[in-house]
Amino acid sequence: MSGKGKLLIIDDNEELLFAFKLYLNRHFSKIDTIRNPNQMLSKLEGEVYDVYMLDMNFKAGVNSGNEGLYWLKRIMEFDSNACVVLITAYGDVELAVKAMKEGAVDFVQKSWDENKILSTLLAAYKLRISKLEIRGLKEKQKQINHHINKNSQFVRGKSDAMKEVFRTLDKVAKTEANILLVGENGTGKELIAREIHLLSDRSDQVFVHLDLGALSESLFESELFGYKKGAFTDAKEDRMGRFELASGGTLFLDEIGNVPMHLQTKLLTAIQNKQIVPLGGNSSVDVDVRIVAATNSDLFEMVAKGTFREDLLYRLNTIAITLPPLRERIEDIPELADFFLQKYADLYKKKIVHFEKSAIKKLTQYTWPGNIREFQHIIEKSVILSNTEKLTASDILLGEGAMSTKRKTDSFNLTENEKLLIEQAIKHTGGNMSLAAKELGINRSTLYDKIKKYDL
Ligand SMILES: Nc1ncnc2c1ncn2[C@@H]1O[C@H](COP(=O)(O)OP(=O)(O)OP(=O)(O)O)[C@@H](O)[C@H]1O
């Protein structure tokens, strides 16, 4: 035999089995035949087949096809990636359609057309290979997700505000409810969104993050819904949008308040109907996503001003969780400080054991406009710059003192000044990126590009 793939033929007609086997022999690496379908399950225990050829009627005089449907189901239960081709009586199209709904991949009629039978079986084998590849990729993805999730460590905190956050989160994470996370920049919204995913029944599927604040308006639609080749000049091939990518898992829509009004309608339709239409496409694609959205804006105020759709808001905030700013949970600061100290001491291979009381006091007295993101950076800087095993108050370089760029105001270097201005604008607006961008006279996506560029 020179072919690839294992074929099992199940038919009570001995002559037909013989003829099939003879004809198909060189196209498959192994062909087994069974006359009595009752023997099939024990056969399946010992061998994995790629393609099945299954007769729809076994008992003499019975032509309902029900037996075939029964055995088809049993094969699919055994191997959900099985590729079953049915052998139907002439004119039994209705029955074949029913069987395909049950998972059969195709059917051939008993009228003897060898070429048709061969091409159908070879196509079924190709499909089998693709199905196995997809299964392999999904398995790989599961492992990667598991690995990513395992590495996510964070501080739950013991402040009342955070206890309340986690009380709600523990209750709702397992449900399919959409969740809206509200809080200032850097309060941990993305981290909490990941935790919701991790605690949900979707945890072995993907978590897809889309930052709507960093997208230019022209990209919103294609990023969310994908596009078909030729949809616009640069669309050289089909591309999946985030909705489709996240299907089966969680879609985290960060900075949801940034979605322009005309796209809010499309977003609402996609969430409601669980279907999207890629740009340039003419048919809809089913998507099964759980939405977690985040914002630092007051969406209710935006609704009142007419800049955010009320129906979309109610779709998104089935459950709303508000993350407190760090200045309102100072009880958590010692634990957070230790957490980041360990993290950065390990990373920079420093022998720093702990903070002195004075250092913690200084950390708790500051207002942290950039919240945990800023806190984390300050501890990182302190760890890098320190030469001792204990960090004291003077090792904690807060506010402008922490910015080594301050002395550069005398400089005429454009890059240095741009970086400094961005840092000051962010600080001045308490980490509110929209406001900071406005103060700097640039749009949010440019601001995000620059933050990335300067590693701020
Ligand atoms: N409880 C926590 N424990 C440890 N690290 C945290 C915690 N909360 C937030 N962080 C860290 O703080 C940083 C900011 O968090 P995150 O990106 O989740 O905030 P955000 O609210 O989504 O910010 P933005 O609104 O700017 O997108 C991240 O590096 C995150 O890992």
From TrEMBL:
Q: Which UniProt keywords apply?
A: ATP-binding, Nucleotide-binding, Phosphoprotein, Transcription, Transcription regulation
Query: Which biological process terms from the Gene Ontology are attached to this UniProt entry?
Result: phosphorelay signal transduction system; regulation of DNA-templated transcription
Q: Which Pfam family, an example, fits this chain?
A: HTH_8
Which organism does this record belong to? Ancylomarina salipaludis
Task: Report TM segments.
Answer: none
List the lineage, top down: Bacteria, Pseudomonadati, Bacteroidota, Bacteroidia, Marinilabiliales
The record ties this protein, via InterPro entries, to:
AAA+_ATPase (IPR003593), AAA_lid_NorR (IPR058031), CheY-like_superfamily (IPR011006), Homeodomain-like_sf (IPR009057), HTH_Fis (IPR002197), P-loop_NTPase (IPR027417), Sig_transdc_resp-reg_receiver (IPR001789), Sigma_54_int (IPR002078)
Where in this chain does the record put each Response regulatory domain?
A: 6-125
Q: Which SMART domains match?
A: AAA, REC
| Gene3D superfamilies the UniProt entry points to | 1.10.8.60, 3.40.50.2300, Homeodomain-like (1.10.10.60), P-loop containing nucleotide triphosphate hydrolases (3.40.50.300)
Example GO molecular function: sequence-specific DNA binding
Q: What is this protein called?
A: Sigma-54-dependent Fis family transcriptional regulator
Specify whether ATP-binding is a keyword of the entry. Answer: yes
Positions of post-translational 4-aspartylphosphate modification: 55
Q: Which CDD domains match?
A: AAA
